[in-house]
Amino acid sequence: MHTLKIKDLVVQIENKVILNHLNLEIKTGEIHAIMGPNGTGKSTLSKVIMGDSNYEILEGDILFDDKSILHMSVDERARLGIFLGMQMPLEIEGVTNADFLRTAIHSKQGNDFKLMKFIKEMNQICDQLKMDKQMIHRSLNSGFSGGERKKNEILQMYLLKPNTVLLDEIDSGLDVDSLKIVGENVMNYYKNQECGILLITHYQRLLDYIKPDYIHIMMDGKIIKSGDHRLVLEIENQGYEKIKEEILGENS
Q: How many C-beta atoms lie closer than 10 Å to residue 19's C-beta?
């Protein structure tokens, strides 16, 4: 059992506060979805958890199993088992997908790494994701479509076997078929691995495949309302601003 806890977090970039006293706790066996309008800090949250040095933490803490990880580098956080599936995965020319993945898995497994087992598992997951195996031998994300990049993130997730998964708008750029494949594979991973998931999305359609236990509405850098799947219908019927007005009215 692992717990990722964001505690009263205040974060700024270029002297602008993006996260404003945000609190959230994700445990193994839970799926949390964060929804909200553009520019409210959703993607910032995932980057800060992963250790992006562009952001300055003014207050608060990020705890993994009750220990602060603020001092840790990105790779140290990854070794704890935290994984970020990025909204816009980086393109790295000259490093093949296979070399990148092999190096990452070898770094994690050390002397336990078995090349043939790695190749077999990689090929199997490519089949699950309906990925062209030629992509494995191309430069990382070079010339990949939006859907191919997102499937590649899920491939990395399966191979690295993280215990805490952050998915930042993994649905953006996906067509209907790819959305179904990605969504079902994320849910399959969740069912077969002991992990917690933080899902950042704009759209209800992803939640047709990935079923969150908790849904949070994020506005102005903080979570303003949390609930179960019924909160999605409330968002669809009322919109974010109406919900915000109701909450302000209740608190006045």
A: 26
3-class DSSP state for residue 175?
A: coil
Structure tokens, 127: 């089949």
Q: What are the backbone angles phi and psi of residue 161, rounded to the nearest 5°?
A: 55, 55
DSSP state of 90: P
Cβ neighbours for 115, distance < 8 A, ≥ 6 positions apart: 102
Strand ranges of the sheet holding 67-68, from the earlier edge strand across to the other edge: 16-27, 3-13, 56-64, 67-68
Per residue in 35-81, pLDDT tens?
988 888 899 999 999 999 999 999 999 999 999 999 999 999 999 99
Q: Are 53 and 61 spatial neighbours (Cβ–Cβ below 8 Å)?
A: no
Q: Choose among 146, 201, 152, 155: nearest CA to 174.
A: 146
Strand-strand pairing, 31-35 and 214-219? parallel
Structure tokens given for 83:
């994984």
Quote the CA–CA distance of 84 and 51 in Å, as a whole number.
Answer: 11
Contact 32, 157 (CB under 8 A): no
Q: Could you give the CA distance from residue 243 to residue 237 in angstroms, rounded to a whole number? A: 10
Q: What is the per-residue pLDDT for 173?
A: 80
* Alpha-carbon span 230 to 145, nearest angstrom: 34
Please state, in angstroms and rounded to a whole number, the distance separating the CA atoms of residues 29 and 138: 35
Q: Which domains does the chain have, with CATH numbers?
A: 3-251 (3.40.50.300)
| Triad 141, 142, 145: Cα angle to 5° | 70
pTM for the full predicted model: 0.92
DSSP tag of 14: T
